[in-house]
Amino acid sequence: MTTTGYSTAATGRIWWQSTDPGTEATPLVILHGGPGVPSYYLEPLNALADERRVVLYDQVGAGRSDHPEDPAVFSVETFVEDLNSLVDDLGLATFHLLGHSWGGMLALAFSKKYAQRVASLVLASPLVNVEAWCADAAALVAGLPAADRQALSGPTEGPEYKAAEAEFYRRHFCNLNPWPEPLQHSFDELGMGPYLTMWGPNEFTQTGNLRGRDYTPVVRSLEIPNLWLCGSDDEARPDTIGAFARMNPEGEYLEFAGGTHSVHLEQPDAYIAAVRGFLARH
């Protein structure tokens, strides 16, 4: 059964969706990326709800949740407390966490403060260390055709810049054309408040308050099962993600050949099978 509703946190109302098959299996809570990219694009992961309760929600500033005007609201610490408030309201004592992209950093931050609540982590193309992410993005930009590299060094509003940006996204964000409806829907409703405040104007330009954030020490200290997923062409580069997975004895790593940052949409059967198998073991 699928239900939706709102939870009230200190920052405002948080929209949630819960799909519950009524089993005793440990629930899964899914954290979207961005910050500010609403959870529509992760709805295909509800395929996992045939075995366990799956909870999706829009973080404050995104999608169907409230959109505060105060930029001070948009911080890692605030989102951690919002998540804790939400799972309290939903009656979830312990659960698995799956965080995609920025949601991976949020999952790590939450597990650091509320370790007793987290049964395992699925870190899907995650942001862990902002400096490392930016270095990887620069390397990927350097791999673009010369005309695109030149365009990205020029005015951001020109058609050449937009075309080069689109080429980066095609190579490393989603290689499906057109984008699947859930992904397009998420970007049509991108919450620019948290995205600009915390990240920046696009995936490869970081100007926001996440600068300097590094959750590598949390990764090294993990004592719960943790699965790391990415595509071979992901903007979360495989060498970087694989290295994180090897930082603790509980880490597992899986790379999807030919996949990008949206590999859960590009290769849904293999992706769901991988997550399903991991959760079943833990």
From TrEMBL:
It catalyses: Release of N-terminal proline from a peptide. Its EC number is 3.4.11.5. The active site is at 101 (nucleophile), 234, 261 (proton donor). It is an enzyme of class 3 (hydrolase). InterPro entries: AB_hydrolase_1 (IPR000073), AB_hydrolase_fold (IPR029058), Carboxylesterase_BioH (IPR050228), Peptidase_S33 (IPR002410), Pro_imino_pep (IPR005945). Keywords: Hydrolase. Gene3D superfamilies: alpha/beta hydrolase. Pfam families: Abhydrolase_1. One of its GO terms (molecular function) is aminopeptidase activity. Residues 27-268 form the AB hydrolase-1 domain. The keyword Acyltransferase does not apply. It comes from the Bacteria. Belongs to the peptidase S33 family. PANTHER family: HYDROLASE ALPHA/BETA FOLD FAMILY, PEROXISOMAL MEMBRANE PROTEIN LPX1. This is Proline iminopeptidase.
